[in-house]
């Protein structure tokens, strides 16, 4: 197994010094092109035919700093992710997370992995709802995390990377296509966050879980989601998974769900599953969602107690 690191800090430095008219293409070729396999799998155009069309740059600009704004003015944020020790810790986290699966008998089907850390846009409403950091690891072999560097987000990068590594492993064994259900996404996010906290502790629980209190989970989220688990179509799933605020930002129809309802529900559903079955997080990660959901029927009617 080989873990490859794309040192985004060096690319940001290069783009910051480039003429304005060269920044977008430089970003596309140096930051986005190494992930070409990922974009192809997701059917995301590398470069839109229409200058105003959707492509990898448009996607980056939703939460990341746009290439046009990569100037010397971002020097403080850039400095925060430029230390060799930062990248070494991130690389070690990715290696450790993946190695743990092989050590527990999961034979990974992908041997080469690429990851990077992108700088977030402080004015992105979606990123700010996530307290300044997020990740993308659903395409095996490719992991991207995005953050606005500060005292809160930087220590959480390792947990975020572990979360995305869990997705990376799961989708080597579980097929993702247009038929994906809300139940699968609840299970997937629950597995990823339980995996991350099993390594780094619940103090690094992501805001997509920690912002939800027991009353909201038990009275508002669980009674609704229990009847929507077979829902398909991402436009229909997203409001239940992300909540109304993020749904509106993505132009989906709100469904009266709080922030990241599906993430929080999935986290506690998987905790319930692991405690009930005594299975390891490693075995659970490659278990089909339907099998997991069949084992947790009691979860929906039992009051979940949130400690802390």
From TrEMBL:
Q: Name one Pfam family in it.
A: DUF2268
Q: Which domain of life is it from?
A: Bacteria
Domain called DUF2268: residue spans: 86-294
Name of the protein described by the UniProt record: DUF2268 domain-containing protein
């Amino acid at each position: 197994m080989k873990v490859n690191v794309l040192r985004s800090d060096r690319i940001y430095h290069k783009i910051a010094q480039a003429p304005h008219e060269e920044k977008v293409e430089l970003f596309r070729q140096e930051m986005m092109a190494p992930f070409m396999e990922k974009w192809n799998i997701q059917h995301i155009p590398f470069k839109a035919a229409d200058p105003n069309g959707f492509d990898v740059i448009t996607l980056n600009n939703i939460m990341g700093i746009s290439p046009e704004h990569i100037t010397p003015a971002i020097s403080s944020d850039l400095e925060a992710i430029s230390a060799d020790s930062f990248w070494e810790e991130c690389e070690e986290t990715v290696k450790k997370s993946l190695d743990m699966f092989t050590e527990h008998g999961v034979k990974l089907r992908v041997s080469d992995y690429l990851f990077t850390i992108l700088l977030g846009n402080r004015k992105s409403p979606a990123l700010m709802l996530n307290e300044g950091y997020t990740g993308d690891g659903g395409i095996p072999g490719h992991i991207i995390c995005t953050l606005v560097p500060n005292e809160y987000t930087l220590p959480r990068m390792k947990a975020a990377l572990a979360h995305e590594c869990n997705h990376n492993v799961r989708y080597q064994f579980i097929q993702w296509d247009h038929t994906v259900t809300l139940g699968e996404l609840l299970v997937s996010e629950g597995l990823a966050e339980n995996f991350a906290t099993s390594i780094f502790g619940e103090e690094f629980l992501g805001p997509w879980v920690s912002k939800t209190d027991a009353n909201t989970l038990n009275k508002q989220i669980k009674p609704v989601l229990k009847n929507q688990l077979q829902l398909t179509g991402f436009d229909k799933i997203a409001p239940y998974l992300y909540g109304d605020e993020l749904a509106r930002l993505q132009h989906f129809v709100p469904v009266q769900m709080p922030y990241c309802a599906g993430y929080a529900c999935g986290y506690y559903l998987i905790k319930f599953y692991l405690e009930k079955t005594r299975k390891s997080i490693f075995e659970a990660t490659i278990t089909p969602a339907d099998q997991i959901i069949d084992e947790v029927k009691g979860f929906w009617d039992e009051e979940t107690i949130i400690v802390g």
